[in-house]
Amino acid sequence: MSMSRSKASAEESVPVNLDDFERIADKRLTKAVHGYYSSGANDEVSLRENRVAFERIRLRPRFLIDVDNIQLQTSILGYNVSMPLIVSPTAMQKMAHPDGETGVAIACKEMGIPMTLSTLATTSVTDVSANCGGEGLRFFQLYTFRDRGITYDLVKRAEAAGFKALVLTVDTPTLGRRNADIRNQFSLPTGLSLANFEAPKAKSTLGSEGTNLSDAREAVRIAAKQGMADHSDSRSALSAYTTKFFDASLTWDSIKWLKSITNLPIVVKGVMTAEDAILAKEQGVAAVWVSNHGARQLDGVDATIDVLEEVVDALRGTSIEVYLDGGIRRGTDILKALALGARAVAFGRPALWGLTYNGKEGVSQVLQMMKDELSLAMKLSGATNVSSVPRDLIRMPYDAPYKSKL
Ligand SMILES: Cc1cc2nc3c(=O)[nH]c(=O)nc-3n(C[C@H](O)[C@H](O)[C@H](O)COP(=O)(O)O)c2cc1C
Ligand SMILES: CCCCC(=O)C(=O)O
């Protein structure tokens, strides 16, 4: 691993929480990259809400419970994990540090938790797996392209590289409006590429008749190589890129097609309502990932933690797992989500801050900090097992005032 940037400089004190990592990262990143990583959509109402909603939830600790040995381990999609945390897919991680996606993947592998690789990664599925020695649990986040041959190709390469699930992001038919990216005319810095669109080394054997695959892939590849340099619609280059290539005609029914080309479990990321949770269930998905995309798509939606319970209720009695991301910054946040029925939580930006801070090592520090904080929160609240955190460990703002049931 390259370690081109050092730890905190003298004037930066050692980070003791994720906010510290964020502050340090903010100072080190270029204006454009910082703007891209940190932004929410529009007025960032939902971005603030993702945090504030966690702060509104109160804990109801129980005491004189033996918390000497608490259980942090659980399983995700049948795989044992050391704690209920997943790293969310975030695009273009080499902008943070040369370790990029490989750094995140190795940190996750060492911690024993899943990493989700973005379709728009700056390291390919094949290279990430190879750099991890084929070890570790990785999911592939899928964006679908107008040309289904491209999507097919991505899925097959993720399968071949040993990725264990497809995380289909449903909240991005096109890109949300992010002021900083427009102001900064954001595009991928020179020298980096969207590596999953580099021409495959070997001739691929595709079964996607009827699509002019090589032309389409070539177009995506060229656009990626040029740093998505098309600003023609006067928005960010990323926005122009998605408008041009992403399949905005995708429907719930398209999951049938996905299932026809792969046996990998499908996780639907971006669900915010009970209605969509039920449609996902009807398509036979393995998991539903409650997310508002880090508040980067539609501004004005609820905080994810505020809709978690309706999704959990809609899926009760099924074996579909529910995950949540959006604003997870503390061990107590994880505990609150578990109490509301999430099997696991995820975060995106904190991994980028860790990466910016000190590459793979920085990500490891961030993950360890979350593990320690979760463990502490459980001990102080009398929760002994991440798989059975009781609902009454918390009070939601919408809960009725306490009435004695004793
Ligand atoms: C810089 C950045 C890039 C992202 N890229 C992707 C992506 O490529 N695919 C995706 O499904 N979600 C993407 N997301 C959303 C994250 O997966 C996740 O939902 C979000 O970051 C969670 O919120 P948090 O950052 O508050 O933890 C991105 C988020 C950020 C901040
Ligand atoms: C087209 C999506 C780009 C990556 C992404 O999901 C994000 O910036 O939020």
TrEMBL record:
PROSITE patterns named in the record: FMN_HYDROXY_ACID_DH_1 (PS00557), FMN_HYDROXY_ACID_DH_2 (PS51349)
Residue ranges of domain FMN hydroxy acid dehydrogenase in the record: 10-399
UniProt xrefs under InterPro entries: Aldolase_TIM, Alpha-hydoxy_acid_DH_FMN, FMN-dep_DH, FMN_HAD, FMN_hydac_DH_AS
Active site: 293 (proton acceptor)
Bilayer-spanning residue ranges: none
Alphabetically ordered keywords of this record: Flavoprotein, FMN, Oxidoreductase
Residues annotated as binding glyoxylate: 36, 143, 178, 293, 296
Cofactor(s) required, per the database record: FMN
One Gene Ontology molecular-function label: oxidoreductase activity
Full protein name: FMN hydroxy acid dehydrogenase domain-containing protein
Classification lineage: Eukaryota, Sar, Alveolata, Colpodellida, Vitrellaceae
